[in-house]
Each structure stands twice: as structure tokens, then as C-alpha cells.
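Sequence only, no structure available. Ideas?
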Amino acid sequence: MSDPARRAELFDGADSDRRFTGPTTGDERRMLIDVLRVQRTTLQLKCSGLGSELCLRSVEPSTLSLLGLVRHLADVERRWFRRVLAAQDAPALFSSTADFDGATDDPGLVAEAWETWRTEVAFAERFVTDAPDLDVAGEDSWRGTVSLRWVLIHMIEEYARHNGHADLLRERIDGAVGV
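Reply:
I predicted one. C-alpha cells follow.
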């Protein structure tokens, strides 16, 4: 492994990381959407430039991998936006065990995972844009009635937690570290 860049060395200046340019005050919807966008972009950043390395595990015997995170988050997006809020009959694409255990060194599997994640994110972004307000609600077997507001907050939490995992996985793969 080459000498990894330290966090402070990753960007050329205070504003060189374009992820963090959204609003910090003002309209609630715009702020929530931007914070979730930053978390989604962070996942892509953590996985950028990797192919088969995406399926490498963090610590044996863990099955956690970056590819597993992409697959898991595709299903999380699908669950909350398609199944719960849009009330679509959209079964999970990767079961909770297949998210991680099924992440193998197969270029087709990697491409499928990214395509699925991007499709689910695009659906979610359209749903949020088209929703008349953040009080749009759906029924979930686990949480009961949930609002779009709650789902956006939950998604931010979900991405933030898993981006922490992505930090550790990526650093183990090639030493890359960052915000």
C-alpha cells in the first residue's frame, strides 16, 4: 500500500470539496435534500476508482464490503421511497444477507449494483421533487405511518452510518481517506 494521503491533504483549499456547498439556513426541504445528496455523493466518492476491490471485506470474518453497502443502500432507497411512500409492489432486490454475502468479484455484479442504486436514487429524487410537501406519508410494517420528512431524515442517518463503514473499508483497500 502506498503512503496514504491524510484528510487535510485531500483538497486544495477550503472550497475544493464541492459536496458541501448546499444551504445551511432556509427552506427545510432544500436543506434535507442537500444533506442527503452529500451523503449519497460521499458513498460514490468512497467507492470511486475501484473495481473488484469493492468486494474486499473489512475484517475477517465480516462480510461487509463497499459493494455490499451499495447493494444494501439500493434496497434501502427502494424500501422507503418505492414500497412505503409510493406504495408500489417493489420487492427487495437484494435480501439482507445477499447484500453483503452475495458481493463477489464479478464485474457484471458490480455494474448491476451501481445501475440499481442509481435507478433507486433517481426514483427517490423524483418522488421528493414531485411531493407537494414533507407531510406526504406512507405505511410501513415496521414503523407504522411515516412522513416524507421522517424518511429523508432516516436516509441521511442511514447513509451517514454506512459512509463511516465505507471510510474504513476504503482505507483498508488502498489507504485513501477523506471526509
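The beta strands are 137-140, 144-147.
Hope that gets you unstuck.
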